[in-house]
Amino acid sequence: MIANVTNCCTTGFTSSLTFISITDCRLLPISKLKSKMDPLLLCMEEEEKTKPVKECEPETDATKSHPSWLISNVYSASQWIKARDYLGVPRPRDFRMTTFSIPALDKREILVEVLCWSVENYMREFEIPPGSPMVGEVIGSVVASRHRDYKPMMLVTCAAGWRTHSVFKPDESRVKAVRDILDFPASVYLGPLGMPGLLAYFSFLKICKPQPGNIVLVNAAAGSVGSVIGQLAKIKGCTVIAFASSRDRCAWIRELGFDYVYHKSVTVSAALARQAHKGVDFFFDCVGAEFTKEAVQHMKRDGTICMFGYNSCYARRVRMDAARRCDPYRMLYMRQARVQSCSLLDFQDRFDEAETQILDWMAQGKLRYRETMFEGFHRLPEALNALYEDSSVGTVLVKSDQVDDLSTSLIQL
């Protein structure tokens, strides 16, 4: 049951079309965290004022396992593992919760307690072997550190997956400190300021390079990626034709100002013949199958298709290799189309630029978002299943029940 809904790789095809498939905070409820940490936390502020800054404590027998300046007394954690291959939509029975021991921190490592988990379609597509932990982006709080740049109680984004705690070496993995964004909750770093927003930003603005008056077709337009693409298109003066799978989702994207909004039951060809009789310039596809077969016929000669997923195939009771065989893009290869690839990580040196621009549009009210929020680590499988139900809208998230809110107000120790 969904808790509440709140407002708040690239493969290319040109023979005439270009086909692009894109693969690939501080947050602190102090009362909750302090109750779980060592009493040393209470005097840390005074110690910080008097002690010189060190990269880490000396490596002695006394500090090797549990340095006295670490503030976490957590020695084990929980995780969700994939119990078996999916057959259709992921179900709670496809996952199993287990516990694991948290190792002692080595030099320049940090321990992160997860406060909010993202749930995305790629978790269905990603090849996760049974028995392996689930993957995913999270918002977390540093609860122990042997890295001078990551102090306890800093908020970070990282790929901890479906775990309550995780150890990282920031110098070797993608861990990013979250800045204070005032009126917005930290969860937007898993939506418009996270992977979905960055994917929309770079695929549309930097790869497609739209011009005013372009016709943009978006399916799954109420999702975390599609809703941002549609809004970017409106910001750039394009006409947006959007499809969604429920009345609530259609109502939401109408609020966003998309020009033509259709329920998935509407015939794609009929809608495009009426609203895009000269052809579609850009098609952002998260659905595949029959929708794509119809939409491709309405592309302009030099149009661009960006493929993000196979939503229509995920719900079928077939294994992933069979689901891929139903993908209509396979037909494009028969036409000897030229294929090019691009990863979101090709733009990682420009993430800050994108984040600043997206946040500015959000502050101006030009770019809005919605979240479907579950509460409690135990609800992660339920949240993943909700992606394929018509009642979820926008970014689907799971918030830890150990925190009261997701404020990014800066905390000075």
Radius of gyration: 23 Å
Oligomer: single chain
The end-to-end span amounts to 39 Å
User: Strand-residue fraction?
Assistant: 15-25%
State the shape: globular
Helical proportion, percent range: 25-40%
CATH topology group of the largest domain: Rossmann fold
Indicate the low-confidence ranges by residue numbers.
1-16, 21-69, 333-341
Q: What's the CATH superfamily of the largest domain, by name?
A: NAD(P)-binding Rossmann-like Domain
Largest sheet: 8 strands, mixed
Task: Tell me how many strands there are.
Answer: 18
Can you give me a brief rundown of this structure?
With 413 residues, this protein is of the alpha/beta class. It is 26% helix and 22% strand.
Secondary-structure blueprint of this entry?
Blueprint: E1 4-6, E2 10-11, E3 18-21, H1 30-34, H2 40-50, H3 61-64, E4 76-82, E5 95-101, E6 110-119, H4 122-125, E7 138-145, E8 155-158, E9 165-168, E10 176-177, H5 195-208, E11 215-218, H6 226-235, E12 239-244, H7 247-255, E13 260-263, H8 268-275, E14 280-285, H9 289-296, E15 299-307, H10 311-314, H11 320-325, H12 330-334, E16 341-342, H13 351-363, E17 371-375, H14 380-386, E18 395-399
Parallel strand pairs: 3-15, 11-12, 11-14, 12-13, 14-15, 17-18
Antiparallel strand pairs: 1-17, 2-16, 4-5, 6-7, 6-9, 6-18, 7-8, 8-10
Helix pairs in contact: 5-6, 5-13
